[in-house]
Design brief:
heterodimer, A: 389 residues, alpha/beta, Coagulation Factor XIII, Chain A, domain 1, 6-stranded mixed beta sheet, 5-stranded mixed beta sheet, 18 strands, globular, B: 276 residues, mainly alpha, 12 helices
């Protein structure tokens, strides 16, 4: 099968101090006065001795059809440049990218929104900018509006919208884009908590539809929860790629009261049980779980070797790992328990196989939350009591 | 859902490759960009679309007063008001498309650095949106013709020719200026000046045959707008006689400007996101 995206020896060079890199447009006079004042420098510049830096160097990777890949790295690692090349906004200095299928890119929601136009008009305009046809937008219009929760304000200019409404509508249009390849920047925190959860759910749904997705983030966690493989960029080069699958996970069980369940009583502890098989003896292998709440925030992470480095080395064959998870720690709500496997020098990923369990935790029965009138909750609660004179 | 369409993003593209398929593939975006321009142009103005006709009307009134009351120009027997308005309405289309089109890349820098689409749709959509204003001012022009008792000549069947030529000329110029403005912001100061210069260097407020001086004559031959404006007036009134040399020259120059503008634009299009 042809890969949906193949990136071959891509490099991107920027020139520092010349028009090509200055953010605002330079003035003609600057070019002229520079020529007069620094004739030698200008001559050197013309001879190709400009000061330059490589934002990307020799990048190679492939993404198969229907796969999702994350590109991670710190600020300045070259993520945005890679993203811009993939979405055809800028072009590589060397190498090439070959793509099969329609490409949609979500670099920033709301691009092209015009403040004077109504919500309805902006949906069509923004849809067209993102590459949707009028027919597609019309077909999805009701869904978009319902998702954005702006039904009442469809014929109001968006400049009169609250910032939340504006962002919700912008995200809704982008989220309903149907392209075979989707290139997305970080899921921006849009709207209130409730809507954020909805956005994350929508993103996950997109990823499950079998579309090829490239997701760029500096947030390892976001990539882990949305992508199957990843490349890590550092100073414009690929530092590491997602690990090949060296581990076979047979089961991830959540056990309470002696049985495997998704409904957890928050008062009491429960066991996380992982049954897995290693093809051979392995060293420096870190295996464990992450617990995320419905908003995607990582609440806890726990690895076998957290308190004992020797547990990084394991023999080949079948293993069972068990960890008692304390009660009276999680507040009520939905959680995802995801397995993490990491080898040194690689990225934490079970390539192609995300293993997770969704559980619902009921509030501890004797916990005094303050009732419905006090909706504020922290991520965790403590099984400790105050002493009061 | 699989599509076999292969896209290669590489460092180089042939200089001559002007991707005409882009216009077809992105026709809906062109439609929506044009619509956006039309819908937003006079939003939150008290008299809205009246501005479309007010601009050429006021210019007409001012120049009718200065040139034909104070000065003493010869219109060749045509009533002053329709004489001026016939060319001023085409000029209004030309100059506003030139002004807004030249700024179109800079003022949409955000879109350019965030998303891919054929960049020339921006200046093109502005020129297309301007056509509506032109059609509206025709309504006013017909009223002026009736009020002053002038009659349309049978040459009116060719009235689309000057419009098509101005469209070609102005899109070529905006391709050139908008791409230059992305790198050199100086362009935004040059264009309005260039605009004023063109107004007086073209037979818009005076008939072409008023320029008899040999230097002026060669300016008229080189200036593509001269032949266009002369033709516009001739096709409406059937007089004064059209200068075919100047007209032929304006066709050649307009097409040349268009081709040069398009090639320049295409050459710099790929760098736009990096320099804007």
């Amino acid at each position: 099968m042809l890969p949906a995206i193949s990136v071959r020896n891509v490099s991107k060079q920027y020139f520092i101090g010349t028009g090509a890199y200055t953010a605002a447009g330079s003035r003609l006079t600057e070019t002229l006065t520079n020529t007069v004042r620094h004739p030698i420098l200008t001559f050197k510049g013309m001879m190709g001795a400009k000061e330059s830096f490589w934002a990307l160097q020799d990048i190679n990777f492939e993404v198969g059809e229907g796969e999702s890949m994350g590109i991670i790295g710190r600020n300045g690692a070259g993520k945005s440049t890679m993203l811009k090349i993939l979405s055809q906004i800028t072009y590589p200095t060397q190498g090439e990218v070959v793509m099969h299928g329609r490409v949609g890119s979500l670099l920033e929601v709301g691009t092209g929104f015009h403040p004077e136009l109504t919500g309805r008009e902006n949906v069509f305009l923004n849809g067209a900018i993102l590459g949707m046809t009028r027919k597609e937008i019309r077909g999805k219009f009701d869904e978009i509006v319902r998702f954005a929760e702006v039904e009442k304000f469809l014929d109001t200019p968006v400049k009169r919208y609250s910032s939340g409404m504006y962002l919700r509508l912008a995200f809704a249009v982008a989220a309903h884009l149907e392209s075979e390849i989707l290139i997305a920047d970080e899921v921006q925190a849009v709207g209130d908590q409730q809507f954020q959860a909805k956005c994350l759910g929508k993103m996950k749904e997109v990823y499950r539809q079998g579309r090829t997705v490239i997701f760029v983030s500096h947030n390892m966690h976001a990539v882990r929860s949305l992508c199957e493989s990843a490349v890590l960029l550092k100073n414009g080069r690929i530092e590491a790629t997602g690990a090949a699958n060296d581990i076979t996970v047979e089961a991830l069980d959540i056990v309470q009261n002696g049985r495997d369940t998704n409904l957890i009583d928050g008062t009491r502890p429960f066991d996380i049980v992982i049954r897995f098989r290693l093809p051979r003896d392995m060293e420096k292998l870190r295996v464990g779980v992450y617990v995320n709440n419905a908003l995607g925030d990582e609440i806890v992470r726990s690895f076998f070797s957290d308190w004992d480095r020797s547990k990084e080395d394991m023999k080949g064959g079948a293993h069972v790992a068990r960890m008692p998870f304390p009660g009276k720690l999680l507040v009520n709500g939905a959680y995802t328990i995801t397995m993490g496997v990491r080898r040194q020098g690689s990225i934490d990923l079970l390539a192609g196989h995300r293993i997770e369990r969704n559980i619902n935790v009921a509030a501890p029965t004797d916990f005094n939350s303050g009732g419905l009138v006090d909706p504020y909750q922290a991520a965790v609660i403590l099984d400790r009591e105050w002493e009061l004179d | 859902m699989a599509s076999n369409k292969e896209k290669i993003i590489g460092p180089k593209r042939s200089f001559w490759e002007v991707n005409l398929r882009d216009i077809w593939d992105y026709r809906e975006l062109l439609y929506f960009l044009t619509l956006r321009q039309i819908k937003t142009k006079y939003k939150q103005t008290a008299i809205g679309v009246v501005w479309v006709v007010l601009q050429p009307l006021l210019t007409m009134a001012i120049f009718a007063l200065i040139f034909y009351r104070v000065g003493n120009f010869d219109t060749g027997g045509i009533e002053v008001y329709p004489f001026l308005f016939s060319t001023l309405m085409l000029w209004t289309f030309f100059s506003s498309a030139l002004n807004s089109g030249s700024q179109s890349l800079v003022s949409n820098a955000n879109m350019i650095s965030k998303i891919y689409f054929p960049r020339f749709l921006l200046p093109l959509s502005l020129a297309l949106a301007g056509l509506l204003d032109y059609v509206i001012s025709w309504g006013v022009f017909i009223l002026i013709m009736i009020a002053t008792g002038e009659v349309f000549s049978s040459w009116m069947v060719f009235i689309w020719v000057p419009l098509v030529l101005s469209f070609i000329l102005v899109t070529g110029l905006t391709f050139l200026f908008s791409a230059m403005a992305a790198k050199y912001r100086d362009v935004q100061y040059i264009v309005p000046f260039f605009n004023t210069l063109l107004l007086f260097a073209s037979p818009i407020l005076y008939p072409l045959n008023a320029a008899q001086d040999p230097i002026l004559r060669s300016v008229m031959t080189l200036n593509p707008l001269a032949g266009i404006m002369d033709a516009q007036r001739f096709f409406v009134f059937g007089r004064p006689e059209m200068d075919m040399t100047v007209f032929a020259s304006s066709i050649v120059v307009s097409i040349a400007v268009f081709v040069i503008g398009l090639l320049y634009f295409k050459k710099y299009e790929r760098q736009l996101a990096d320099v804007i």
